[in-house]
Structure formats: C-alpha cells, structure tokens
Specification:
Elements: H1 2-29, H2 34-51, H3 59-82, H4 88-106
Helix pairs in contact: 1-2, 1-3, 3-4
Length: 111
C-alpha cells in the first residue's frame, strides 16, 4: 500500500507542477493573461505541498526520484495538451528515467 500511495502522490505532484508551469507558459507565451499565471503559481504551490506527503522522509531522495517522474510526465503532458509527438529517443529516455525512479524509491534498503 505504501508503494501505491507513493505512486499516486508522484502522479498528483506531476499534474500540479507540470500543469502549473504550463499555465504560466500559457499566460506569458500565449498571452492569456494574469489569471492563467496566477493559477499556475497556485498549482506550483500545491506541488510543493503534495511532495511533502511522500512516505519516505528523505527530501533528496524524493526530489531526485520525482525528477524522473517529471521527465516522463512532461512528455505525456505535451502530448495531451499541445499535440507534441515524442520520438523514440524521448520515449527511451523517459523509460530510463522511470527505471531510475523505481530504483531510487522502491528498491530494498539495508538498515
């Protein structure tokens, strides 16, 4: 159950951070205005809070592992929201990152 909770929290964090960054991007680059940027700032704050809910207490480990989730999630977000089509190297790179997440977060540790 702890691993499932961790995975769900990583997914929520990714939606909040990537979504927040995307909202700010839309506000600035696509000239959608301050409302979009403000929503992005709020979403980024939610990301920071969600990250603290991870069962592991090591900040460095959580953020390092989340980096891999961010890479894969960013590509998926681009596909869903902007019509981005990753090439095979994008997909392979994201898969490598997710293997890294698994190793960092879920491999057995010696006490």
């Amino acid at each position: 159950m702890t691993v499932l909770r961790s995975i769900v929290l990583f997914a929520l964090a990714a939606v909040a951070e990537i979504g927040g960054a995307w909202l700010i991007w839309q506000g600035v680059r696509e000239h959608r205005g301050w409302g979009w940027m403000g929503a992005g700032v709020i979403a980024l704050g939610v990301y920071g809070f969600v990250a603290t809910l991870q069962p592991d207490a090591d900040f460095g480990r959580i953020l390092a592992a989340y980096g891999g989730v961010f890479v894969a999630g960013s590509l998926a977000w681009g596909m869903a929201m902007d019509g981005f089509r990753p090439d095979r190297w994008d997909v392979i790179g994201a898969a490598v990152c997710l293997v890294g997440v698994t190793m960092i977060m879920y491999m057995p540790r010696s006490s």
